[in-house]
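Narrative summary of target 7.
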Amino acid sequence: MKKLNVMLLFACIAALCLALAGCGDSGNAPEPSNNQASTAEVTATEPTGETTITAADLTSVDITIEYGDFDAMSELAANIQSGRNDDSVVQIDGNVVNYGTSCSIVEPSADGSKRIGTVFVIEGASENAYPQDGAHVKLTGIVGADDTGYTHFIKTLPDFVEVLG
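Modeled conformation, tokenized:
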């Protein structure tokens, strides 16, 4: 019985670690090469899918995160994931990290040893409209949740993702 409890505890700890892995990253943010910086561009195209927000929804920014402000981004990410910032308009100057199935906007720590961020979705845009991994962007979006109400993220539109480098 004691062995079963220990195995169950280990499984719970492993599951928690995997769940938290998506909330932050201890690696360094990838730096775009000169070639990437010059070609990284989000093209504002006609929406290809359904959108739930409009440009008017994004005009009044409630929360601004400056580039490299790890502490402010940590607080914002925690508030987003707990549902405390739903419907807030945020503007974040950060780096894009592509995890394969999702993209996040992240802030590096001062020493570059870790980073924290949150997932964003460009509504009405195709996958190839997202900035390249490692791109420096300024993103304005509105915090929302999926249909279940359990997954929170930033929703934006193509015109509100500006690639800076």
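The radius of gyration is 17 Å.
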